[in-house]
Design a protein that fits this description.
The complex is a heterodimer of chains A (111) and B (307). A three-stranded antiparallel β-sheet of chain A has the order 1-3-2. Chain A has helices at residues 2-6, 10-18, 25-35, 47-56, 79-104, 106-110, and strands at 23-24, 60-67, 70-77. In chain A, a hairpin with a 2-residue loop joins strand 2 (60-67) and strand 3 (70-77). With 111 residues, chain A is of the alpha+beta class. With 307 residues, chain B is mainly alpha-helical. The longest helix of chain B is centred in the first third of the chain and has 40 residues, at 59-98. Chain B is built from eleven helices and no strands. Classes of the chains: A alpha+beta (111), B mainly alpha (307). The A-B interface holds A 11, 24-26, 29, 43-46, 48-49, 52-53, 56-58, 67, 70-73 and B 22-23, 25-30, 32-34, 55-59, 62, 65-66, 68-70, 72-73, 76, 132, 134.
Chain lengths: 111, 307
């Protein structure tokens, strides 16, 4: 259920998660799980197409390092990504506020 | 377990070798990190690997998705280069073929292809920008078509301009040589991007039956303006009015530009002749625009596809 619900918002969530510090894919999934209180527990591979697309759109940048003999890729927010995150936060607040008002209204409750 | 998963993922990836290596290294790091954490939490090593793979999802579907993202990147790259290439094709067609006095059929081809390249280049770059801004990914099909068309136009106008210049013994300036070299490099990059995207660009993506250029412009001009414009100039509902208006504007613009470039008639006695020249030029332009709409309008997604 959460997997389906998250689909339209995955880009914004990923941008928000890497906004604090550069993170590699595994850490992104962990952070997403932690910050959502375990609610967003999607198949872990699904984040990679989104991360790659966001990088190709210039919203994320990536760098490689070597950790314990393994190559590791970490993603960080670009300036454009930070701007996009701000816009998506605003859009979300407007959308969530509108949904909340509709659901909370007495007519909605009656229906 | 992890090795099998990576082999299956690798087999489903349709990306260049370097990209494939990066993807596999990234996924391997993720799977090993998950397995290590589960193992540290008390799970047996084999079970930890199995669980890590299970959590990751199906390798085939992931490989196809990652390949589509890679194809998208290449198509957008081709789309960005379509505008400068279209401008070069337009310049070569109008100045290097028509402007140098080529024979009538060659001049006509240069005239039509130059404008086709300009329109296709502009539309393609706009669509690439829209897709990058989160627009409908179905536009990628049109970005790919537009880039291919611009490439074709540039090759033909370039060949025509080269032949015309050779026939007239035209001296090439440093600027012209620079533009030709730069556009050849850009053309090669664009062709390479299209080639790399080719195997994955045949994804079953279809334009909506009612798709037209106005629906694409809606995010840019807003739904209210789009609806207002659509009442008068909808390529979907009033294709002929749309085509006539665009053709008329293009014809008037070219006739006006020609008049300005020539500095107008020297005296009143030459006015009828100047007006006639403007009418012929503007009329030819309008007919070319109308022809372009008829022949390429559907293919370029300016008006809805048939059926």
């Amino acid at each position: 259920m959460a997997g389906e619900a998250i689909k339209g918002h995955l880009d914004a969530l990923l941008l928000a998660v890497v906004a604090g510090e550069p993170l590699h894919g595994y850490a992104v999934v962990e952070r997403l799980r932690e910050r959502s209180g375990g609610h967003f527990d999607l198949p872990e591979g699904t984040i990679y197409p989104a991360l790659h697309r966001l990088e190709s759109d210039g919203l994320l940048t990536s760098s490689w390092s070597s950790v314990g003999g393994r190559r590791r890729r970490a993603y960080a927010l670009t300036r454009r990504g930070r701007r996009a995150l701000g816009e998506r936060r605003d859009d979300w607040r407007v959308f969530a506020g509108a949904v909340e008002r509709v659901l909370a209204s007495p007519t909605g409750a009656a229906a | 377990m992890i090795t099998d998963f990576l082999a299956e993922l690798g087999a489903s990836l349709a990306v260049p070798v370097r990209r494939r290596r990066q993807i596999l290294a990234e996924v391997e790091d993720h799977l090993l990190s998950t397995a290590a954490e589960l193992h540290a939490g008390g799970m047996a090593a084999v079970d930890a690997e199995r669980e890590a793979v299970a959590r990751f999802g199906a390798p085939g579907a992931l490989g196809r998705e990652l390949s589509a993202v890679d194809a998208r990147r290449h198509i957008l790259r081709a789309g960005w280069s379509a505008l400068p290439l279209g401008v070069v094709a337009g310049w070569l067609g109008l100045r290097g073929v028509v402007g140098l006095g080529a024979s009538l059929p060659v001049a006509l081809a240069g005239f039509v292809l130059a404008q086709t390249a300009l329109v296709a280049g502009g539309l393609t770059a706009m669509r690439a920008w829209l897709v990058r801004r989160g627009g409908d990914p179905v536009l990628l099909v049109l970005v790919r078509r537009g880039s291919t068309l611009v490439l074709g136009c540039l090759l033909v106008t370039g060949a025509c301009a080269g032949l015309t210049a050779a026939r007239h013994g035209t001296q090439l300036t440093v600027l012209v040589v620079g533009v030709v070299v730069a556009s050849a490099a850009l053309l090669a990059a664009c062709a390479d991007a299209l080639r790399r995207a080719r195997p994955r660009a045949t994804a079953p993506v279809r334009l909506a039956a009612d798709h037209d250029v106005l629906t694409e412009l809606t995010p840019l001009i807003g739904p209210v303006t789009a609806a207002r414009l659509g009442r008068w100039l909808s390529p979907r509902h009033r294709p002929w009015r749309f085509a006539s208006a665009v053709s008329l504007i293009a014809g008037l613009a070219l006739a006006g530009a020609h008049g300005l470039a020539e500095g107008g008639p020297p005296d009143l006695a030459h006015l009828p002749r100047a007006v006639l020249a403007g009418v012929i030029l503007g009329g030819t332009e309008a007919l070319a625009a109308l022809g372009g709409f008829l022949v390429l309008g559907r293919w370029l997604g300016i008006r809805p596809a048939r059926g």
